[in-house]
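Duplicate of #3305? Posting structure anyway:
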């Protein structure tokens, strides 16, 4: 029997480069175990971000490379993920039950921020993570409707002090809309809004979340700045359209997060191209390449581009966003790619070793 050389196995594994971090599995410290027994190779890989969508390809590519090593008779590869807590800005204390908070923001309204936030949360969940979403848009909460949560739904409480998040499509959700009625406008000043968001965040019993997606209010005013300073955010995502005026506001959003030391993980360009629902013709109604230019100018990443398509609006308004309604569609595939890229970039952040995140188990008694 041919003697298997350990260095040959390692070299074969190094041929695989993570598609989002451009490093091999050893550089990522993702190889947890590598053993050989009579020609049978066993490999255990653990990625640091929500990544179940690429696990099959990883197994196949690495498996093929290992099978070509002389002496190898069979290969068994186990791929899992371990999403750790990362540092927030200014050492703000973490929220109980939440490992990482991702803020989804936009410099102006009308660019599809909430639609992106909801689909990003669902895509992270589809990639194997435990996910929650907080609707921080107090003046115009829409996350509940987008998730198909019936109007008038009220969260259960525990000890008359804490809210239990509402479950929808496998993720945990909390919104001011669950505490008011559709006909109750929030006529509040900035400090009241910021305080309400912080209360919703801290008084909700989030149950062992890998990621909490926060749908921020649009704009870059006092409310947004105060929230960015007081909510322990691990990374942010800026949503824009290719339109010049939207790109100007996108730049302001990036600058806002940088002023408060929150890393901008990247830019999502929404409505990048219009796809005709009848003939499939593509047309750049709002310009082309704007998101990529902003990402380059500010040394960040274009996380992905999403089309302006009728089904995205219809599915979201109907309470079954694209990732749920058509999980095998091109739109859902793009959202899941954005989710993996976002999680991968966040995994590069410094680990939070000083304040482990306690998990909260919610029971009915």
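Output from current build:
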């Amino acid at each position: 029997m041919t003697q298997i050389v350990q260095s040959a196995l390692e070299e074969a594994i190094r041929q695989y480069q993570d598609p989002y971090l451009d490093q091999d599995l050893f550089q990522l410290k993702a190889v947890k175990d590598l053993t050989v027994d009579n020609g049978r190779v066993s490999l255990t890989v653990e990625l640091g971000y929500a990544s179940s969508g690429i696990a099959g390809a990883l197994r196949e590519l690495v498996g093929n490379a290992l099978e070509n090593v002389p002496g190898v008779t069979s290969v068994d590869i186990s791929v899992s993920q371990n999403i750790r807590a990362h540092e927030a800005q200014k050492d703000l204390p973490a929220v109980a039950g939440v490992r990482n908070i991702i803020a989804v923001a936009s410099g102006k309204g009308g660019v599809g921020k909430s639609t992106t936030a909801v689909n990003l949360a669902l895509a992270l969940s589809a990639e194997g993570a435990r996910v929650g979403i907080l609707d921080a848009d107090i003046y115009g909460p829409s996350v509940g409707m987008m998730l198909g949560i019936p109007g008038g739904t009220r969260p259960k409480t525990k000890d008359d002090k804490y809210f239990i998040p509402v479950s929808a499509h496998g993720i945990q959700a909390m919104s001011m809309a669950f505490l008011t009625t559709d006909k109750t406008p929030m006529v509040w000043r900035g400090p009241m809004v910021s305080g309400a968001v912080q209360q919703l965040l801290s008084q909700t019993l989030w149950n062992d979340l890998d990621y909490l997606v926060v749908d921020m209010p649009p704009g870059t005013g006092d409310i947004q700045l105060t929230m960015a300073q007081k909510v322990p955010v691990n990374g942010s995502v800026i949503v824009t359209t290719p339109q010049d005026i939207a790109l100007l506001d996108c730049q302001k959003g990036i600058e806002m997060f940088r002023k408060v030391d929150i890393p901008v993980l990247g830019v999502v360009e929404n409505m990048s191209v219009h796809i005709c629902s009848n003939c499939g013709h593509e047309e750049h109604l709002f310009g082309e390449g704007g998101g990529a230019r902003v990402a380059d100018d500010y040394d960040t990443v274009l996380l992905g581009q999403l089309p302006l398509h009728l089904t995205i609006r219809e599915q979201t308004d109907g309470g079954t966003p694209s990732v749920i309604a058509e999980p095998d569609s091109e739109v859902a595939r793009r959202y899941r790619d954005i989710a993996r890229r976002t999680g991968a970039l966040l995994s590069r952040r410094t680990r939070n070793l000083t304040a482990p995140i306690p998990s909260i188990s919610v029971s009915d008694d």
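Confirmed duplicate; merging threads. The chain has two domains: 6-81, 89-346. Residues 194 and 226 are 7 Å apart (CA to CA).
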